[in-house]
Amino acid sequence: MAVRTGQQFIAGLRDGREVWYNGERVNDVTCFPQFAASVASLANLYDLQHDERYRDTLTVESAEFGERIGRAFEMPRTREQLQLKREAYTIFARSTCGMMGRSPDFLNVMLAALAAKRSFFAELSSERADAIVNYYQFVARNDLFLTHALLDPQLDKSKLRHEQSDPAICLRVIDRTAEGLIVHGIKRIATAAPYADEILVWPFPPTFQPGEEAHANVFAIPMNTPGLKVFCRPSFANPGARHDHPLSSQFDEMDATVVFDHVLVPWDRVFLHENIGLLNRMYRETRMRELTAHQTNTRLEVKLGFVYAVLVRMAEAAGVVARPEIMELLGEAVACVEVIRSTTRSAEEQASVDMENGLLYPDLFALQAGRALGPVFYPKLIGMLRRLGGGGLIQLPVSLSEFNAPISADLERSLRGSGIGGREKAQLFKLAWDLCGTEFGARHELYEMNYAGERGALLAGVQREYGRKQYYLDHLDHFMESL
Ligand SMILES: Cc1cc2nc3c(=O)[nH]c(=O)nc-3n(C[C@H](O)[C@H](O)[C@H](O)COP(=O)(O)OP(=O)(O)OC[C@H]3O[C@@H](n4cnc5c(N)ncnc54)[C@H](O)[C@@H]3O)c2cc1C
Q1: Is ligand 1 within 6 A of the CB of residue 451?
Q2: pLDDT tens digits for range 27-68
Q3: According to the CATH classification, is domain 287-452 in 1.20.140.10?
Q4: Which atom of ligand 1 is nearest to 151's Cα?
Q5: Tens digits of per-residue pLDDT, 63-96?
Q6: Which atom of ligand 1 is nearest to the CA of 149?
Q7: Which of 49, 313, 386, 416 is in the most buried spot, having the most CB atoms within 10 Å?
Q8: Domain residues of the chain, as ranges?
Q9: How many distinct helices (H) and strands (E) make up the chain?
Q10: CATH number of 6-283: 3.20.20.70, 2.60.40.10, 2.40.110.10, 3.40.50.2000?
Q11: Best probe residue, ligand 1, of 191, 223, 251, 454 (max atoms within 8 Å of C-beta)
Q12: Which of 38, 148, 151, 446 to mutate to test the pocket of ligand 1 (most atoms within 8 A of CB)?
């Protein structure tokens, strides 16, 4: 069935899964008002794969599979393949203005990265190595949409997982049978879990210590697996209000907690289990960061570019776009967009072949620079929206439909700007408010600050692993010797 349509994606979600919203079980996630628009936005991504304008970028006729698969699943061996991957990520990201961080391409490329390192999983056993490769092929052939959950609940950070007041909270293996592992406990934050096809679980951060073996498991199961429950946060979706909430009404990705209640994970879905040594090495040694950050930095470039464009239009609407201090502000926004844009291109330029599997990996450190700076740049641009918009951001009608009410003439006069009518300016500012003032906007700042993991740990890792460190130290040492 490779390369699904939107309708096929939607049909696949009506599978009896257990999703809870505000204390009530959701019957059909595809038409539940709080999810329906996001499901439709995701379905649109699947339909784009069949649009002849994008088909050859978003999908590829794979010799390995003997059929067409989504571009993100392709294992890159040439620079052109890397560029095409970036172009595919860009098409998806532009379709959602960069607002759906967990679009299908994100986990599809992560899975390809894991499967490309079969040898890593073979260190545990050939069965586990076969399991990850077979699972990758299954997901690619069926063009599935995955969510993932890495973290334990935020408990007592001074204690290890098994030392918590209730050791049953953090997800762990409680039994092994001929069919598979029985797992029990909780994971978070699984974005898009209510309407994903499958969930991939691997624990993070990779700092497991002796005693935590039962928690060190990597596996994947369908979202309708018995015993798997999804609990949602409050929705920020504003169903149907496309003019008044242009982004949240279309792209509010639901974040969820996932509870595993004595869940059976069949052996062919277990990729690593009860092994803290391997788990602590997995994040780094499977090289998943190189391939996923290529996608995430591409998406962030699109999102920052979108916010920059809103800033320009707001400055024009206020008649201040040519003022020196506004030019400076906009120039700083450009610099942020361009730095993130450069990370993917630089990573492709400096890509190198891994002799073990023949794949061409984008440069890790170019990409890590984007992951480290995204959490700074995105809030900075959002702050610029607030600064430029000033009180205009809240001096808005309840709904743009008020422009059809008897007060429309007064509204029009009170809201117009430089070369822009009141209604158009209100629409622009409603968009800006969705980015910088709504709960949806706040969630996006939090997302960009956290999606790549806690930033301090990320930066420490960058310094620890920096591959060009010696290159710069050697230069300094030679200079010092010359003194
Ligand atoms: C909107 C959103 C969507 C997300 N989507 C997903 C998803 O799809 N899948 C997924 O698996 N995860 C997802 N995440 C989770 C994300 O990976 C984490 O939020 C991120 O890794 C930070 O971890 P945390 O939330 O547990 O925060 P914490 O680790 O609790 O960090 C919070 C703060 O605690 C302090 N702190 C933490 N550890 C230490 C320490 N050792 N020493 C001193 N201080 C410390 C720091 O001040 C830190 O800033 C999402 C998060 C958000 C916000």
Answers
A1: yes
A2: 999 999 999 999 999 999 999 999 999 999 999 999 999 999
A3: yes
A4: 11
A5: 999 999 999 999 999 999 999 999 999 999 999 9
A6: 11
A7: 49
A8: 6-283, 287-452
A9: 17, 14
A10: 2.40.110.10
A11: 454
A12: 151
